[in-house]
Amino acid sequence: MIKILLILISLNSNANDSLKNFLIEKGIINKDEYESYLNKEEKKDLETKGLFTFRYFRQQNIYQIHRDIFLIQTKLELSKNIDKNLKLTIGFATGDKSKPRSNFESLTGGFANKNINLSLANLMFNKKNFNFVIGKFQNNIWASNSSLIDSDITFEGASFELKNKNIWFIYNPLLMQEFSITDKDPKLNIVQFGLDFKYTKFALTYYDFMYIKNTSTSTFISRPQSPYILSNSEVNSKYKYDYNILATDIKMEIPISNLMSFIYYANIGKNITISKNSDFIIYGFELSKKKNDFKFLSFAFSYRKLENDSFLDILPDISNYGGSTGIKSSRILITLNLTKNISLIPYYIYSKPNNKNQKNEKVFIFDTNFKF
What we know:
The protein is mostly beta strands.
């Protein structure tokens, strides 16, 4: 009888909260039993989550031409617990497969059908404080912002993650490219150590890009597209340097009241392989207001300066001068969350390349996001 009651309540937990609380108060069901049952049932079910975005994009590009573009993106993620400690995740996303830094499709092309790609395919083993992932998976390296690695990038390889209260450690051996004529395939090893306290988060991260020097610059399909600058140093159309980056990242929250908070962050790093033109600094702040237990409204400003060889130019945020390095960029962003699943996000980006022969760029973006 008790199991039947648990099943009926779990079918619609929101609608039956009052019934659940009444039965717990009367001692007919036990709260711990109910939560334990609910957790077991959730682990058996197929978990789904998705995102649909409609974007208006207005750009004054480097030709000083104004462009008005309408775009859409859709992401769908499916997860299933195979065993007590094993979870399989498969994800799909729109976007051109040759542009892994963007899942957006423009509403042009004579009403042509849009692309759908496999964006995630991984197996995760989890036990207490340890996670192991193999396959194609979400970027799990913590950062206070998405300037260095675009938020649409998904990693390919493996990840080892240890967490214990306020401390975490991550090691990601990642595959970048496979060659048939050499055993020196480009790889990326990322090591991160982090501390997480109530109002402060800090991380020290090392990015080891292997076998980049003397690799053809046409190797990576996600390099900035013309007419944007290919700012990493080259010799005879080959990368001149390797990229071994040491970065520090900190994020601090200052509560102003129960409903308002101020957040400041800074990310500073250097490509330690070379001494010149290899530094980056990213910093910003956010002022936010909560409503009904979620962030209702926020205003944010950020600034970034990436020198030419500070980071491999296939990964940074594509909204800033096509993902190029060798730029200075400022961003103003407002987020209005109408509900937990619907948000309006207008923002403005002004980018100025370090090369004085290149033109500046102004971009206005208005995103409408629907989570499902």
